[in-house]
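Chain entry —
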Amino acid sequence: MFKSLIMKFIALSFLCILTALNGAAQKRVIDSLYKDLRFKKTDTDRAVALYNLSYYYQNFKPDSAMFLAKEAYNLSKKRKFLRGESWALSSMANAFHALHNYPKAIEYFIEQLKIEEKRNIPENIGSTYLSMALVYNSEKDVRKALFYALKADSIAKVNKLPELALFAKLNIGDIYEKANQLGSAMVYSHNAYELSLLQKNDQITGVALNNLGNIYFKRSEYGKANDYYRRSIPFLKSSEDYNNLAECYVGLAKVFKDQHNPDSAIYYAKNAYKLANDNEFFAKAVDASALLIKLYKSNGKIDSAFVYQEIMITLTDSIDNKERAKEVQSITIAEELRQKEIVEAHEKEMEERRQKLQLLAIGILIPIFFFISIFLSRRKVNKKVIEFSGIISLLMLFEYLTLFIHPFVAEKSHHSPFIEIVVFVIIAALLTPTHHKVEHWLIGKLSKIRERHIEMRQRAIDELETDKED
């Protein structure tokens, strides 16, 4: 019992030291990103800086990533910065993916997809499909994961997008492998490997070779599995992909275990555990420690098996606690976002109401100006004042019409400045002659009213003078 407590204490202490060291490095990067944000002046630049912060926070603090991305989204939407909106939605979706809230992740990826379809950039549409495929794969919905991954692959093929094709084929191979459809998995993983060589992408070369090792291991072709695993190691090391390298070491350990070579199996399982633990890939560390327990037990080394069992329990508890915390975080964040959206909707409603009231006020003011013009025309006022009043009334009317139809034009043109300019030039071309005709008609009418009233006034004066003479 005492030994068990000591082992738990050592394991927890080791995890705390690693977390502290990693935290110090993270703080330096975050401080640098916040410093960059402070120097940004325009809304679009601030939106990009906020997205960069959000992207960095995604893996270890998804709640912060979420709120930073939301702020970036609001700024981007305010400035009609579609690229910024898309990035922010992607960041929010990835944060929900990290929190294992898959429905919310899909919801935000769909919103991103709508924007990318407006922008009509095939590579971005394909990338969004691929992100959705990864969420469905995490949810173990193989059918939908393949549907979206294959759509991404199709877009890559039609539009000749080699990088998208590479990632699509790699992920399709991985989806098939996890679903134990090994024939299809092998075809796509080989394609990904060949494309990675052409594109000189060492990391993907290493991942594809590791995936092929997994496939051949499941087929019990241990010689080929061993070969692919070993070939992946230098690529994964050079690209510092320690997560997949740990998986590769676990794969090699399993190969040697099934080939009844316990010493080599223990060697690679230990390497996998150390690498995963040092880099905080705790799920891989659990896989490696579980394998070491089996290996030591089969060799009769109960003490060593017990050590790794205690480590595995500690790691599993840590992972379970993190998963529960993620679930709570996900619910909390979803509710906070909902409340924020309610506030934003209310503010938007108030702004729209304010604008409508202003339009109503202007609409009421225009006929008042017309009545003032008519009133002035009946009084002894300079003709130019009447003409000026009439022109102002007409200008307000036509500007009011332009202001009134602007939201409709903006919505239908998807806020495209070019389309808006063309539409308003056409409207101006139609309204300008009408404006001039109405202006001449109105001024003429007001002048006639003025002249008639002057004549009537003069006649009245003449009649009074005649009466006086009589």
